[in-house]
Amino acid sequence: MKKQEKQKWRRLDNSAKLFPIVGNKKFSSIYRMSVVLIEEIKPEVLKRAVKNTLQIFTTFKVCLKRGFFWYYLEQNEKEIVIFKEDTYPCRYMDKRMNHGYLFKVSYFKKKINVEIFHALTDGSTAIEFVKTIIYQYLNLQHPRTFQEPFSVKNIEVDAENSEDSYLKNYEKHLHGKDNSGKAYILKGSRLLPYQVGVTHGFISLKPVIKICRRLKVTVTEYFTAVLIYAIYQEQKKEKHCKKPIKVCIPVNLKKYFSSTTMTNFFSYMTVVADKEQLDLTDFELILAFVRNNFKNKLQKEEMAKTMAHTVRLGNSIYVRMIPLTMKKLILKMIYKEIQKYTTTTFSNLGKINFLPEYEPYVDQFFFIIAPESAEKIKCTACSYGNNIVFSISSILQDSNVEKNFFSFLTEQGIPNTIITNGTYQKEENALYPKINTLLLEEVMDKIKEKKETKEKISLREKLKKKFHF
Description:
Number of strands: 15
Order of helices and strands: EHEHEEEEEHHEHHEEHHHHEEEEHEHH
Number of helices: 13
Strand order of the largest sheet: 10-9-11-13-14-8-15
């Protein structure tokens, strides 16, 4: 049988089309998965591991190209670059500093980070990609231990694993749209440009499971309720604010529909907590409300309605025929308005498992999503071993929501240990380096000057180099 020729280029899936158009330094569409091993990372070994992984996940060997109507993906054979972590996470990915790849690998002490531009793939595929990097790294680092390392068939790009599963499962007759209006947006002074604050809560798994069983809710439902309660503690300080708290929950559509794709295939559900209709001072009422929302909205038909709405927009003949330059102007304006309809996003990856023989070398797994100007905080959770890690990334100077959230867990008898990325404590720890903000502060002082000086231009160039722009 004749071997199928490799695809030189391919279209972006229905979700991915939007990310390059609206993406910028304030909205990076980047998420990061981090794995902490029990030993210091060797960068040269890590680079070989990533190269080996790319021979398996060939769908990741691409760069983004600009077409007349849409962006598209093209095969990328350039050398991969590995970075030492020295800046803030989930920053906008400049193709000039990463040889065009839509993911970035960095390391710090015992930690490996993989940041991925959402146009490339969703979280379910990203997990497998990250795990394979870890397997390859440990194989190379411990050849005597793993004399017969795991084998994975090369995942060549073909019609099945690069299909647009949105179009495959699209039902034209379905209609679905959120009509609950604009959301409550968190207020407060922002961090300096390019800064992202990260707070990880390492939570003992058993007490969470115990309390969720007693309350007859899932972990995602419980954390969603706690998050709404924590955000309301800030909203109630604004006496005249009547907008609902809206939490967006990404949903893996591969659990509901037929799909073998390694590209994006996710949707979302939104929990709308309106203080005009629900007593947000009562946690038990919030929890019952959230549980009912999940029960009603996490149905195949409801997911199909949401998917149909987004596919219909992306495949409108009017949208398709507009040149990309015009699309960018129009869709950016539309998306800027859409952003006002969500308070925050909470994504739970669930339980992360590594192959048994590799587990002794893996200490922690966690991930974060880039915050943005409207959703000033974004939240994630996943469990590995005996811990659940609940993470909040933020562009706000204060960490009130984080304090409210973890204080509530403590009051409920759920122990948790907090580690940040140093944005708030300004010091290095086991997971994050200390980042020098003097350059940022100097640039901000110069930005206030209306006159464009040589010194101001020079500082801006240093800033781009330092923070990988």
